[in-house]
Amino acid sequence: SLTARAADAEEKLASLQTTFEETLTASAEEAARRATTIQSLEEKLAQVTAETSFELAAAAERYDAAEKRLASSAADAETSKRVGELESELEDATAKAAALRESAEFAFSQADRIASLETSLADAPAR
What we know:
Elements: H1 2-74, H2 80-123
């Protein structure tokens, strides 16, 4: 009968509306979780970047100081032993600077990844 079909259609419509609302709520919750994750990653990236920048600056200062000491000590033939020590310090500072540079590159790659995640999240259609 027409009344029974109308009631069945209303029931199906109500079911679809409930499913839609549940899906929309789940999508909103997932988007909120992703936003929280992105914010946390951004905060960690900012911290790592700040620490890396500070360490890189300190390594650069040590490198410059070691280079200056090496240059002034190399002129004095009686301090050849000290020149060797300064060369070692210079090598250590160079290695530390390279490691810090790698850390900075990693931090910047993470920033790119976060930006990509934000773009993906912004472009994702609501489920």
